Automatic annotation (TrEMBL), chain A:
Entry annotated with the keyword Nucleotide-binding: yes
GO terms under biological process: peptide transport; transmembrane transport
Protein's UniProt name: ABC transporter ATP-binding protein
Origin species: Antarcticimicrobium sediminis
Pfam families documented for this protein: ABC_tran, oligo_HPY
UniProtKB keywords: ATP-binding, Cell inner membrane, Cell membrane, Membrane, Nucleotide-binding, Translocase, Transport
TrEMBL record, chain B:
UniProt GO cellular component terms: plasma membrane
PROSITE patterns to which the protein is assigned, alphabetical: ABC_TM1
InterPro entries, sorted: BP-dependent_transpt_permease, MetI-like, MetI-like_sf, OppC_N
Subcellular location: Cell membrane
Main subcellular location: membrane
UniProt-recorded name of the protein: ABC transporter permease
UniProt superkingdom: Bacteria
One Pfam family cited in the UniProt record for this chain: BPD_transp_1
From TrEMBL, chain C:
GO CC terms in record: plasma membrane
Subcellular locations according to the entry: Cell membrane
Organism phylogeny: Bacteria, Pseudomonadati, Pseudomonadota, Alphaproteobacteria, Rhodobacterales
Entry annotated with the keyword Manganese: no
Species of origin: Antarcticimicrobium sediminis
Principal subcellular localisation of the protein: membrane
Record protein name field: ABC transporter permease
Residue ranges of the TM segments: 9-27, 99-122, 134-158, 178-200, 235-261, 281-307
A GO biological-process term: transmembrane transport
UniProt cross-references to Pfam families, sorted A to Z: BPD_transp_1, BPD_transp_1_N
Key words, A-Z: Cell membrane, Membrane, Transmembrane, Transmembrane helix, Transport
Membrane topology reported for the UniProt record: Multi-pass membrane protein
Domain ABC transmembrane type-1 residues, every copy: 95-304
Family: Belongs to the binding-protein-dependent transport system permease family.
Length: 546, 304, 313
């Protein structure tokens, strides 16, 4: 890695940084931030949503939204030059040439109406007085360096013609083509699948080593942190909690908040044993779903979102379906509750095939669904009581009785019944997800489908909601179909696991078998790509099982 | 507040007090507050209130009979007897302006009621019931392709000039625009997780429309309704001006301008007085629409 | 692309069919007997019956509709009930003035509105922006004929720079043609300037909040470079849409403006026809305008793909 011995040069030094709202609010958004980044070093800024980590990185880039946020104190030294005080012209010179940035959303970070080659070329046009031939050669070289295939074609492509991973490579090429001293990466892999994430992380490391670039990597994901960080800066609610070397923070954090944060990261070691004796609540047999029009010129243009899928969920069992985006896992889940109509196969709930029934009302009494986004799954115009009672009232229960049951269930998920009259916007994401879970549970379903139900939550909240699932399963013996892309979450909660790839089940079995001794190459790739497979975050030590 | 929870003592206690008073944009209170928050909005509101008051209180505002012809007093200038002078039939211009507000406001309100109600009906029909979409939207496309003014002129000319005909003629071309907007909102909302969640809870079609779909069209409808109100007043004046509006003897701003055309070079104020009233009314209502739009949904700005 | 144009042309057929049906129904189902209107109140019942028969009004409604549609498809738009001239001739005679007025108005509107909108977006919230926005609300709150008369009063009557009213075709010389078009075109362009400037402003502001604008800033581009190089291109599609809508709306404004400035165009033709209850002319002109509207929409759709590579047909 980096050569620490030969007196490393400080590239970025943030001193007593304070960022405030314009006009100033009660408390600065970010305050008293101090850290340094050396040549060739990777510093990770870690924190949950609202910690101020992204604001800090935007401040370094001089890109705080004008008129709403401003640096009101402290210094940001880039190679000794305080960029909070330089002129606008000097700041523009420094951008891309001195400090470059890679953003979270590769889907929206590129101008959709311009060819990607021209977008990279623009950086050179702005900062170098080269001929167009020189520039073109330089761009093509850079495209090669970020390992894109067929660079001539890529140069001429528009962003929408490229995959997410390819676009992120373009953004990285754009950021690094001028060999900046400092690279700021704000959650650059969060929107990507794990296998792509691994490649992008490797690419950043590779280019960093060639140029001895200093890297500031903003992320919420401790898995990623443990893979790439030399040092870690932990932030919470606008304040710096703790800084230290990667090892120190992961194995012996000094601060309580850091301890809580690190120990909330689920480990990859399966915790739950198989459940085999109880009756089958859900039996999916040969389920297929195809999209696409038949006929009209182009035949054979069908998409098999799910193809011959088989699995079961028993009473008291949590079965996970894991897979990357496009694997068809959500399609399967939606077919089970008939939000989507399956094309073929049978879905047996308590032994009754619901795949083609017209009595959907009966199906939905037995099966309930929890959605990924807690901010959009509750009607913002209805009170919590109205949302919770809706299902019961639909099935003919009197209002008073429904209200009592709703209150009871709300307490079951850990919220006081006193909040029944409030509206969703008065709750945090984690609390909303609890309400959504209560709304499903109040129906007393036999089967609960959780579609990425914890994916949008911060890691500490995620841990609490996972605990809640575990508790509910123990108390009610409900069967749960748990859809997730996150192997760690699956390891935490699932008894058995189904791995899907391109609409097909490639491997299924107990959680222990699938995660510890994967048979199918795709499962093996997924597990290998999961960041930090060898670290047991909950116990602050390397995991012995792997 | 701190009811002990069965499952999890670990709910971060500090989260709960935070829930108390988060203001939400889009609530009735917040909207009203915003409407009164800028000068432009306040002035517009005052102007609209004044015009409504003028319409309601016209007989008590020192007016004379607006249709009383006095051939001996034709085309007089301003005087104490006639604040704004008289027109070519010797009628009192000030009184006609005051009474004209009634017609304009009635046309505005009537158009809004007709076009919004029918627009909601067709919008829900096409947005939620896919089978209706193909037929109804083709019809709506056809209706939208016909220039509204021409359709209105033709309707009035053929069916005869009455207030009802004018209302229908102005409202009909607006229906497809309302229907399209309602349809677009419903198409957007019906894939929202909370609507799918309601489906999973066994919510039936009508309950779904009433509880989850219609409420989200309210804010955009309020804004669009305001704009329709303004544009209806404008269209009425154009129709009357072209001679295809409400009966010529009725004191309306459009009719006054139509009659003033002949004497325009001689006495331009005969057109300008009612013209200023139309402009002022339309302007104020449009400004209110802008404030409502900015407050209720910034994204709607795109649709104008 | 070819396939797309074909599909789009085909999809225009049902819309135009609907237009024809609506126009037909409006004219035939409205209270009021066309025969009475044409023959006048003093006609005897025998005369009326004969007239109805001659006009085909005694046939079932559906038959009348299809007879009429058949005639249109064969290019026969009938003859004016008033003058007896073929409708096609009447329309051709009046097409030139309307076309000139519309084109000049549109050019003025686009040339003025786009810079105004961009400047307002750039200066968002500042004085200039407020002025442009206030002007734009004013622009479509004042009836076109008021603007027209005011301009006549100031520029023709008081200053005497332009003739008060009238129209001369281009064949009478460009100067004569142009000087008579200035006032009508300028006054008609007001609401469209307002409309287009607003849409430009809103969309440029919206685009300026996109992630790729942040990327462009991170490259070290100036705000001006960001605006010209990245924001305008991305705001192009809604701007083209609103220009298309404006063309469609122009048709309504033309009727009024031609009436104010005494221009012998299609707007005046349709007004004369309405006042004389000349059904065949009304039908045909409405159908013509609707067809133009549908084809403008088609052109707008095709233009999208020029500005946005994601839209491919």
């Amino acid at each position: 890695m980096t050569d620490i011995a030969s007196a490393p040069k400080v590239v970025l030094s943030v001193e007593e940084l304070r960022v405030d709202l314009v006009p100033a609010g009660e408390k600065p958004i970010v305050r008293n931030i101090n850290f340094q980044v050396m040549e060739g070093e990777t510093v990770c800024i870690v924190g949950e949503s609202g910690s101020g980590k992204s604001v800090t990185s935007m401040a370094v880039m001089g890109l705080l939204p004008k008129g709403s946020l401003a640096v009101t104190g402290g210094r940001i030294l880039l190679d000794g030059e305080d960029i909070t005080r330089v002129s606008a012209t000097r700041m523009r010179e420094l951008r891309a040439a001195g400090v470059a940035m890679v953003f979270q959303e590769p889907m929206t970070a590129l101008n959709p109406v311009q060819r990607v080659g021209e977008q990279i070329d623009e950086v050179l046009r702005l900062h170098r007085k080269w001929s167009s031939a020189e520039r073109k050669k330089s761009v093509l070289d850079m495209l090669e360096r970020v390992h894109l295939p067929d660079v001539q074609r890529i140069y001429r492509s528009y962003p929408h013609q490229l995959s997410g991973g390819q676009r992120q490579r373009i953004v990285i090429a754009m950021a690094l083509i001028l060999r900046p001293r400092l690279l700021l990466a704000d959650e650059p892999t969060t929107a990507l699948d794990v296998t792509t994430q691994k490649q992008i992380l490797r690419l950043i490391r590779e280019l960093q080593d060639e140029e001895r670039t200093a890297v500031v990597f903003v992320t919420h994901d401790f898995g990623v942190v443990s893979e790439i960080a030399d040092r870690i800066v932990v932030m919470n609610r606008g304040e710096l909690v703790e800084t230290g070397s990667c090892d120190k923070i992961l194995s012996d954090p000094a601060d309580d908040y850091t301890r809580m944060l690190v120990s909330s990261v689920p480990s990859l070691i399966p915790r739950c044993g198989p459940i085999e004796k109880t009756p089958k609540v859900l039996d999916v047999v040969g389920l297929s779903k195809t999209y696409g029009k038949k006929g009209f010129g182009k035949s054979g243009n069908l998409v098999h979102a799910a193809n011959g899928v088989n699995f079961t969920v028993r009473k008291g069992e949590i079965t996970g379906i894991i897979g990357e985006s496009g694997s068809g896992k959500s399609t399967v889940a939606r077919c089970v509750i008939r939000l989507t109509d399956p094309s073929e196969g049978a879905v047996l709930v308590n032994g009754n095939d619901i795949a083609s029934t017209n009595n959907l009302k009966a199906v939905r009494k037995k099966v309930q669904y929890i959605f990924q986004d807690p901010y959009r799954s509750l009607n913002p115009r209805r009170t919590i009581a109205q949302s919770l009672m809706e299902g019961l009232v639909n099935y003919g229960m009197a209002d008073a009785e429904a209200y009592a049951k709703a209150a009871e269930t709300l307490e079951l998920v850990g919220l006081p019944a006193g909040v029944m009259g409030r509206y969703p916007h008065q709750f945090s994401g984690g609390q909303r997800q609890r309400i959504a879970i209560a709304r499903a549970l109040v129906m007393k379903p036999d089967l609960l489908i959780a579609d990425e139900a914890v994916s949008a939550l911060d890691v500490s909240v995620q841990a609490q909601v996972l605990d809640l699932f575990e508790t509910i399963r123990k108390r009610t013996g409900i069967a749960v179909l748990f859809i997730t892309h996150d192997l760690r979450v699956a390891a935490q909660i699932c008894n058995s696991i189904v791995v899907m790839q391109r609409g097909q089940v490639v491997e299924a079995g107990t959680a222990a078998d699938v995660l510890s001794a994967p048979q199918h190459p795709y499962t093996q790739t997924l597990i290998a790509a999961a960041p930090a497979p060898g670290w047991d975050f909950q116990n602050f030590r390397p995991s012995r099982a792997v | 507040m701190t009811t002990p929870t069965l499952t999890e003592p670990s709910v971060p206690a500090q989260d709960l007090p935070e829930m108390t008073t988060v203001p939400e944009t889009g609530t009735v209170k917040a909207t009203l507050r915003a409407v009164f928050s800028t000068w432009a909005a306040r002035i517009s509101l005052i102007v609209v209130v004044l015009i409504v008051a003028m319409a309601l209180l016209a007989p008590w505002l020192g007016t004379q009979d607006p249709v009383q012809i006095a051939p001996g007093e034709r085309l007089q200038g301003s005087s104490l007897a006639h604040f704004l002078g008289t027109d070519s039939y010797g009628r009192d211009v000030y009184s006609r302006v005051a009474y004209g507000a009634r017609i304009s406001l009635a046309v505005g309100a009537g158009t809004v009621v007709i076009s919004v109600l029918l627009g909601i009906f067709f919008g829900v029909l096409t947005g939620y019931f896919r089978w209706a979409d193909l037929i109804v939207m083709r019809f709506m496309d056809g209706l939208m392709a016909i220039p509204g003014i021409l359709l209105a002129i033709a309707l009035v000319a053929i069916s005869g000039a009455t207030l009802t005909t004018v209302l229908i003629a102005i409202a009909v071309p607006e229906i497809p625009r309302v229907a399209r907007m309602v349809r677009a909102v419903i198409l957007g909302v019906r894939t929202e997780p909370y609507v799918e969640a309601a489906t999973c809870l066994g919510t039936g079609i009508w309950a779904m429309v009433w509880r989850h779909l219609l409420p989200s069209t309210l804010a955009p409808l309020l804004v669009q309704g305001t704009y329709i109100f303004a544009s209806a007043i404008m269209t009425e004046s154009i129709l009357s001006f072209l001679g295809a509006g409400i009966p010529p003897e009725t004191p309306s701003w459009g009719n006054m301008m139509a009659e003033g055309r002949v004497y325009f070079l001689l006495k331009p104020e005969l057109i300008l007085y009612p013209g200023v009233m139309v402009s002022l009314t339309v302007l104020s209502v449009n400004m209110l629409g802008d404030v409502l739009r900015d407050q209720l949904d910034p994204r709607m700005a795109k649709r104008l | 692309m070819g396939v797309f144009i074909l599909k789009r042309l085909l999809s225009a057929v049902p819309v135009l069919f609907m237009v024809a049906v609506i126009v037909f129904l409006v004219l035939r189902l409205s209270p009021g007997d066309p025969a009475v209107m044409i023959a006048g109140p003093n006609a005897t019942p025998d005369q009326l019956a004969a007239l109805r028969d001659a006009m085909g009004l005694n046939e079932p409604l559906l038959t009348q509709l299809f007879v009429w549609l058949g005639q249109i498809l064969s290019g026969d738009f009938g003859v004016s009930l008033v003058s007896g001239q073929p409708v096609t001739h009447l329309i051709m005679d009046r097409f030139g003035p309307t076309l000139s007025l519309s084109i000049v108005t549109l050019i003025i509107a686009v040339v003025v509105a786009i810079p105004l909108g961009v400047v307002a977006a750039w200066q968002q919230g500042k004085l200039l922006d407020r002025l442009v926005m206030a002007g734009s609300v004013l622009g479509f709150s004042v009836p076109v004929f008021i603007i027209g008369y005011t301009m006549i009063l100031i520029f023709a009557r008081i200053l005497g720079w332009f003739p008060v009213q009238g129209y001369k075709p281009l064949s009478d010389g460009f100067g004569e043609f142009a000087i008579r078009l200035v006032l009508p075109a300028v006054s008609l362009s007001f609401p469209y300037i307002a409309l287009i400037a607003r849409i430009v402003r809103t969309n440029v502001i919206e685009v300026m909040n996109e992630d790729y604008i942040r990327t462009a800033r991170a490259k070290g581009l100036t705000e001006r470079g960001v605006l010209m190089g990245h924001a305008l291109g991305n705001a192009a599609v809604p701007i083209i849409t609103i220009i298309g809508v404006s063309i469609a709306m122009l048709i309504g404004g033309v009727v009024v403006t031609e009436s104010v400035f005494n221009i012998p165009g299609l707007g005046r033709l349709v007004l004369e026809a309405v006042l004389a209850r000349d059904y065949t002319v009304i039908q045909s002109v409405i159908l013509l305008f609707s067809t133009i509207y549908v084809f403008i929409n088609l052109v707008v759709d095709l233009l999208y793909s020029l500005f946005d590579p994601r839209i491919r047909y």
